Amino acid sequence: MECQRLQKLVKNWYQQVQDEAMAPARMVAFMDAHLQECEVCRADPMVQEEVNRIRAMVISLVKVAKSTEDETASQEPEAEEVEETYVDDDNDEPDEIDED
Ligand SMILES: [Zn+2]
Q1: How far is the CA of 40 from the centre of ligand 1 (A)?
Q2: Nearest-angstrom CA–CA distance, 34 and 36
Q3: Residues 13, 27: contact at Cβ < 8 Å?
Q4: Which of 34, 37, 39 is nearest to 7 (CA)?
Q5: Element (DSSP H or E) covering residue 61
Q6: Ligand 1: distance of its center to the CA of 9 in Å?
Q7: What's the CA-to-centroid distance between 34 and ligand 1, angstroms?
Q8: What percent of the chain has pLDDT over 70?
Q9: Separation of 54 CA from ligand 1 center, angstroms?
């Protein structure tokens, strides 16, 4: 990777992904956008391959984090409570308190 700018950006983005401040898909999109607009990167024949490697790394990083998370989070969906139509006809008066 010859582009200093992209090197810095990737470091920065990668840190944010690790901190869960940025979605990995977003980082991938940013990298792709940079490749398209950066002249240094467009002239670098190796950069696309490196970006592909970084992309795979970022995605695997997330999968690891997600899979441990899912284990605790995966719960059976709660059965919906059947709402009984219950009409309360009589007035439930609170028990009278005997004063004195
Ligand atoms: Zn670049």
Answers
A1: 5
A2: 5
A3: yes
A4: 34
A5: helix 47-73
A6: 9
A7: 6
A8: 66
A9: 14
20-60 pLDDT, tens digit per residue, is 999 999 999 999 999 999 999 999 999 999 999 999 999 88
Q: How far is CA 82 from its chain centroid?
A: 34
Alpha-carbon gap, residue 63 to 70, rounded angstroms: 10
Residue 1, SS3 per DSSP: coil
The residue whose two tokens read 């490697």 is: 53
| Tokens representing residue 52 in the block | 């592909």
CA 32 to each of CA 28, 43, 90: distance values in angstroms, whole numbers, following the listed order: 6, 14, 69
Boundaries of every domain in the chain: 12-67
